[in-house]
Design a protein that fits this description.
By secondary structure, the chain is an alpha/beta fold. It is built from 8 helices and 7 strands. It has a single domain, classed as Rossmann fold. It has a 7-stranded mixed beta sheet with strand order 3-2-1-4-5-7-6, with helices on both faces. Helix 1 crosses helix 2, helix 3 crosses helix 8 and helix 5 crosses helix 6.
C-alpha cells in the first residue's frame, strides 16, 4: 500500500508504528465505519471487526459500507472484502456476533493497542469501559450522534467533560468514580439533541465522529516520538 503522502507528513517511523498497531472496532455503523475506513487508509495491518448485524435499507444514509447492492449481508464480511481491496496486506479478523455483557470476553482474545467502541448498548459500553480500565487497554468510546445536525460540535474529550449527550449521562451514572471518568476518552457532541420520536441521523455527524477517532489514534502515536 502506497503511503508516501502520509510518510511525508509524519515520517517513516511513525507510519511503521501505525502499521504495527492492533486495533479492535466494536460496532460497524456510522461512526465505526468511518473510523475503520480512515484507519485502513492510514496503513494499519491488523484489525478486528466486531458486529453481528446485517446491512439494511436504513443504513444507507450514514454507513459507508452500505449500498443498494449489499442489503442483508453481514457488515463484518462486507468490510473484510472492502479492506482487502484497499490494503491486501491487512490482516482482518472478524467476530460476527452481537456483544453482550455475557460474551464480552470475546473482545479480549488478543492484546490490542486500542479498542474503538461504537456499539449501541449502554450496558455493553459500561462493561467495556470497566474492563479496559482494569486491563489498562486504551479505549475510545463513541457517545451519541443521533438527532444531531451540527458536525462542528463533535469533539474528542473525556467522559467527565461531556455535556448535552444523553448516552454519556447514562454512562456517567453507572461509572460514578470521577477519577475513572477522567481516564475515559470519548468522542461526543456538545450540540443539544433535536427532540424526535425516532432516532434521526445525518450522513456527516457520525462520519465526523469516526474521523475524530482516527485523528486521536494517529496523533497519539505521533506524540510518542
Amino acid at each position: 500500500m502506497n503511503l508516501n503522502r502520509l510518510v511525508s507528513l509524519i515520517g517513516e517511523e511513525n507510519v511503521k508504528k501505525i502499521r504495527n498497531l492492533n486495533i479492535l472496532v466494536l460496532g460497524l455503523g456510522g461512526v465505526g465505519g468511518y473510523a475503520l475506513e480512515s484507519l485502513v487508509r492510514c496503513g494499519i495491518n491488523r484489525i478486528t471487526l466486531v458486529d453481528g448485524d446485517v446491512i439494511n435499507h436504513s443504513n444507507i444514509n450514514r454507513q459507508i459500507i452500505a449500498t443498494r447492492l449489499n442489503f442483508n449481508r453481514y457488515k463484518t464480511k462486507e468490510w473484510r472484502k472492502r479492506i482487502r481491496k484497499i490494503n491486501k496486506d491487512c490482516n482482518v479478523t472478524i467476530i460476527n456476533v452481537m456483544i453482550t455483557e455475557d460474551n464480552i470476553d470475546l473482545l479480549f482474545m488478543q492484546k490490542y493497542d486500542y479498542i474503538i467502541d461504537c456499539c449501541d448498548s449502554t450496558k455493553v459500553k459500561v462493561k467495556l469501559i470497566k474492563e479496559c480500565l482494569e486491563r489498562d487497554i486504551k479505549l475510545i468510546s463513541s457517545m451519541g450522534t443521533a438527532n444531531k445536525i451540527d458536525a462542528t460540535k463533535v469533539q474528542i474529550t473525556t467522559l467527565d467533560k461531556t455535556e448535552y449527550d444523553p448516552l454519556a449521562k447514562r454512562i456517567r451514572r453507572e461509572i460514578k468514580n470521577k477519577e475513572d471518568m477522567k481516564k475515559i476518552v470519548v468522542v461526543s457532541s456538545t450540540e443539544k439533541a433535536i427532540n424526535n420520536l425516532v432516532l434521526g441521523s445525518t450522513s456527516y455527524v457520525p462520519a465526523t465522529a469516526g474521523l475524530f477517532i482516527t485523528n486521536y489514534i494517529v496523533n497519539d502515536v505521533v506524540k510518542k516520538m
